[in-house]
Amino acid sequence: MSDIVMPSDEMMRHTSMSMSSVSWFEFLLDEHKLDNHLQQQNPDPSPCQLIIQFLQQAEAHLAASTALVREIPTTPNGQNDSRSEDGNMHDKLVVKESKKVIALKLLALKVAAHLNWNLNILLRNIPVALLQILLNELMRLTVDGDIEEIKSTVSDYNSISEETLFSLQLFHRWALLAVVRDSFPRRPIKSFVQVQGQVDPAIAYHALNEIIMRNLRESTAVSIENLEKCIQCGRVLKLPVSKCFPVLSDNTEDFSLIWDNCVTVTPQEYHCQVDDPVFINVDNARLKGYHHGCQSLQGVTQQEPPEKVTLYEKSEACRRNGFKGIVDVLIEDNLRQELTMIYRSELEDEIGTKGDSLSEVYVQVSICNVVRGVMEGKALVSLLADVIEDADPQTIEFLILVLGRALHGASFSQKSNLKCFV
User: Fold this and answer.
1) Nearest residue to 239 via CA among 272, 278, 295
2) Could you give the angle at the alpha carbon of 338 between the alpha carbons of 332 and 340, nearest 5°?
3) What whole-number distance in Å separates Cα of residue 80 and Cα of residue 72?
4) Cβ(62)–Cβ(102) below 8 Å
5) In the chain, domain spans
6) Dihedral angle of Cα 41, 42, 44, 45, to the nearest 10 degrees
């Protein structure tokens, strides 16, 4: 995977976050300030905002240093040593990172360690381009050799160190998660309150993110094979914590990472998630949703304890069973309001395509949805008028039944909406 050229120094200045109570440079001046800040209940800036600020500032200073290196004075004979015969600069310039750049990157790693390297949080809040820089920096500190070459090949997980094992699997997990997330329709990365004249980081990094995602998609097979090798090796992982990364000061001449502070992650932990999550955390609700979605596609029915079954699960079971009992579920949902109106409308549309066999159920579902909408304060009188225009007595009785049950358990505002509707 090739290196990505970061935005220019000027762009970096325009992609900073909104004004916070603490500035990023204060964490360079006091080695205890970051730990104290992260222990607050709702720190401002948040951990992910800090990572973005530290990495942006590091890249800005690195870009400035690169620009200075390119301005090499000409030789006595008038020739510029850094240019080729066609007048173009050489493609690669070796720029030594300053102490300030190293310190900023270590601070970013320290914050990521505080978040337990939770990729769900990091992917949701940090642009892909900056997150790649963060993981690359971790690999540079733990991996011997050219990290670009190592990322694009399958490593021997039986011979590498425990710290290297962690950084490699973390990178390849991130690569696959990023590709999966990119394939779904999603909201933009959360942006903060904009200051006039500043550009949203999500916009500034959009082009870079597209290039990175294309490279990640091309390398998915390598990432999958690496993770398979990681699982098969059955070795212990060493998860770096915040105390592994020092805070550099002006007097620091050299530094070393304190790997003895790492947390041990057993193979059982990352194989099966058998204990309280330390290494990763599982979104149970999302996982359960995927599970029931697969059940619906495959037509598989699985019995679950009634007390643990949600209304969504009940409705999906009704859908697989020819929509038997779906009306009772929707009447119950009018009070509990677990199902979204979009989902309920999709059910109504699907039943409407089934023909005369479910015409009565279709009318009842339509009435349930109208009552639910009215409880939310939506004016849906015209829809109900269409439903009951030529309705028989049974349909009128059903409408009264649904309204009665809704009034029985509705809140004060919902009762007011229903009374106005009636």
Assistant:
1) 278
2) 110
3) 7
4) no
5) 9-69+96-186+199-272, 322-421
6) 100
Half-sphere exposure of 130 (CA within 13 A, CB side): 34
Residue 86 half-sphere exposure, CB side, CA atoms within 13 Å? 4
For residues 324 and 175, what is the distance between their CA atoms, to the nearest angstrom? 43
Range 240-260 average pLDDT: 80
Task: Give the sign of the dihedral formed by CA 332, CA 336, CA 338, CA 343.
Answer: positive
Q: What is the DSSP letter of 138?
A: H
Task: Taking residues 152-175, report their average pLDDT.
Answer: 90
Long-range contacts of 282-285 (CB under 8 A, 24+ apart): 283/120
Q: Tell me the C-alpha distance between 343 and 257, whole Å.
A: 51
**The two three-digit tokens of residue 48, written as one number:** 């992910």
Q: What's the full length of the chain, in residues?
A: 422
Q: How far apart are CA 161 and CA 262, in angstroms?
A: 13
**Mean predicted lDDT score pLDDT of the chain:** 77
Global pTM value: 0.57
Give the pLDDT confidence of 192-246 residue by residue, as tens digits.
455 555 555 556 667 778 888 999 999 999 999 998 888 888 888 888 998 888 8
Angle of the 359-375 helix axis to the 393-409 helix axis, nearest 10: 30
pLDDT tens-place string over residues 361-385: 888 898 898 888 888 877 655 556 6
Q: In the structure encoding, which two tokens stand for residue 318, read together?
A: 């009704």
pLDDT-based confidence at 21, cuts 50/70/90? low
**Peptide bond just before 246 cis, omega within 30 deg:** no
Residue 238 host element (H or E): strand 237-239
